[in-house]
Design a protein that fits this description.
disordered C terminus; single chain; transport; globular; membrane; about 425 residues; Growth Hormone, Chain: A; Putative MFS family arabinose efflux permease; about 80% helix; about 0% strand; 13 helices; cell membrane; mainly alpha; TM_effector
C-alpha cells in the first residue's frame, strides 16, 4: 500500500506536501475570514476565489509549455518562494488593515503563481517515483492532502482565535520553506528523467495539436469536467441539505463535513491498494459515486445522508487518483506539462461553473431534486465516456497492421480465398 514511500525522494516530497497542505488550508480559512471582516459580504469571498481561479484558465497552457522546456527544480523553487512572499504580504495586510483592493490584488497574484506552479510541480512529483509507483504516489498524496485539510482547518480555527488571520498567513508562509527544503534535498541522480520538448514540439499551439490527436485524453477530460461540475459540489449541497430538508443546521453541516473528510482519507487508502489505476477503476468508481449521488437526494435523515456521503467522498478520491494517473502515464513525456495544465484548466472551469450551477439548481428545484438530477447527468456522462473509450480502443486495434506469421522454409504460400 505504501510502496511509493520506499523512494527517499518521495518521502521528502510527501512530508513537505503534508506541511504545505496544512498551511494552505490555514490560509484559505484566514483569507475567507479576512475578507468577511473587511467587507461583511459573502459575494466578496466568492470574488476572491474567482480571482485566484482565472489565471489558471488564462495562463495554464503557457506554464505547461515552460515546464516541458525548462529545468523543473529551479521553476519549483522560484514559484514556492513567490508563494512564501505573497503569504507574508497577506500577513502584513491583515496587521495593517489595508484595503479590500489590495486583498484582491494578492488573490490575483496568488492565482498567477499557482498557474505557473502546477505543471512543474506535477512533473517533478512524477519524477521522484517513476511510472511504476506513480499511481500509488498520487493516492498517498490525496491522503496527505486530506490530512492537511483536516489539520489546517482545525488548527487554523485555534490559531485564528489566538492571533487572527495574520498568524495563519504567517504559518502558511513558513510552510513553503518545507517544500523549498525538500526540493533542495532531492538527489537529482535518483530522479526518473523525462524527455524535454524539442523546438518543433514546443509552445502552446503544439500542445493543443497534440491534445487534439489524443481522443482518449479528451474523453477523460470531458468526463472529469462533468463529474467535477455537477457531481462534486458537496460543499454547496451539504450546506443546503443541512439547512433545508434535513433541518440539521450548522451542527449537521459540521458533521457532514467531517464525514466527507474521513471519506477522502478512506478513498486514498483504497486507491493506494490498487496495483494498477486504470480506466476500468476510474469508470467503475464514477458509476458507483454517480448512482450514490442520486440516492443521496432520497435520504430522509442526517445519519442516512452521512452514510451515503462517506462512500461518495471515497469514490471521488479514487476517481481523481485514477484520472491523474492515466493523464500522466498516457501522455508523452515532452508534452506532460501541457497536458497537466489542460487538466488543471478543466478542473478550474468545472469548479467555476459547477458551484453556481448546483446552487441555482438547489434553489429552483430543491436540493434533493438537484442531487438526483446531478446524479443522473453524471451517470449518463460516465456511460457515454465508456462507450467513447470502447470505440477509440476498437478503432486503434483495427488500425494496427495484422501480425505476420513467418513461414517455415519450404512452405508454399496459401492462396487467398475469393
Amino acid at each position: 500500500m505504501f510502496r511509493a514511500l520506499r523512494h527517499r525522494n518521495y518521502r521528502l516530497w510527501a512530508a513537505s506536501d503534508l506541511v504545505s497542505s496544512t498551511g494552505t488550508w490555514m490560509q484559505v480559512l484566514g483569507l475567507n475570514w479576512l475578507v468577511l471582516e473587511s467587507t461583511g459580504s459573502a459575494t466578496a469571498v466568492g470574488l476572491t476565489i474567482l480571482f485566484q481561479a482565472v489565471p489558471m484558465l488564462v495562463l495554464g497552457s503557457w506554464s505547461g509549455a515552460l515546464a516541458d522546456r525548462l529545468p523543473l527544480r529551479p521553476m519549483v523553487l522560484a514559484t514556492q518562494s513567490l508563494h512564501l512572499l505573497l503569504a507574508a504580504t497577506l500577513g502584513v495586510i491583515a496587521l495593517t488593515g489595508a484595503s479590500t483592493t489590495s486583498i484582491y490584488a494578492i488573490a490575483v497574484l496568488t492565482g498567477l503563481v499557482s498557474a505557473l506552479d502546477g505543471p512543474p510541480m506535477g512533473k517533478l512529483a512524477a519524477q521522484v517515483v517513476g511510472p511504476a509507483d506513480l499511481g500509488n504516489a498520487l493516492a498517498l498524496g490525496s491522503i496527505f492532502n486530506s490530512t492537511g485539510r483536516i489539520l489546517g482547518m482545525s488548527l487554523g480555527g485555534v490559531l485564528a482565535g489566538l492571533g487572527g488571520a495574520a498568524l495563519l498567513f504567517g504559518v502558511n508562509a513558513l510552510s513553503f520553506l518545507a517544500v523549498i527544503a525538500a526540493v533542495l534535498a532531492i538527489r537529482p541522480n535518483t530522479l526518473h528523467p523525462m524527455e524535454v520538448s524539442p523546438p518543433q514540439r514546443s509552445g502552446m499551439l503544439a500542445g493543443f495539436r497534440y491534445l487534439r490527436g489524443e481522443s482518449r485524453l479528451l474523453v477523460l477530460f470531458a468526463l472529469g469536467f462533468v463529474l467535477s461540475s455537477v457531481g462534486r459540489n458537496y460543499q454547496v449541497t451539504m450546506a443546503a441539505m443541512s439547512t433545508g430538508p434535513l433541518q440539521a443546521g450548522a451542527a449537521g453541516f459540521g458533521l457532514l463535513s467531517t464525514v466527507f473528510a474521513v471519506g477522502t482519507v478512506i478513498g486514498g487508502l483504497l486507491a493506494a491498494q490498487c496495483r494498477e489505476l486504470g480506466v476500468r477503476v476510474l469508470l467503475g468508481a464514477a458509476l458507483v459515486t454517480s448512482a450514490l449521488q442520486f440516492v443521496s437526494g432520497l435520504s430522509a435523515g442526517l445519519l442516512l445522508f452521512a452514510a451515503v456521503i462517506l462512500p461518495i467522498a471515497a469514490g471521488a478520491v479514487v476517481i481523481d487518483t485514477a484520472m491523474g494517473t492515466r493523464v500522466q502515464l498516457d501522455s508523452a513525456d515532452d508534452m506532460r506539462g501541457r497536458v497537466l495544465a489542460a487538466q488543471s484548466s478543466v478542473s478550474a472551469a468545472a469548479g467555476a461553473l459547477g458551484g453556481p450551477l448546483v446552487g441555482w439548481m438547489s434553489e429552483t428545484m430543491g436540493v434533493a431534486t438537484a442531487l438526483q438530477v446531478s446524479g443522473v447527468v453524471a451517470l449518463l456522462a460516465t456511460v457515454a465516456a465508456l462507450a467513447a473509450l470502447v470505440r477509440i480502443r476498437d478503432a486503434r486495434r483495427s488500425a494496427r497492421p495484422a501480425p505476420v506469421t513467418p513461414r517455415e522454409s519450404g512452405d508454399e504460400p496459401v492462396p487467398a480465398l475469393t
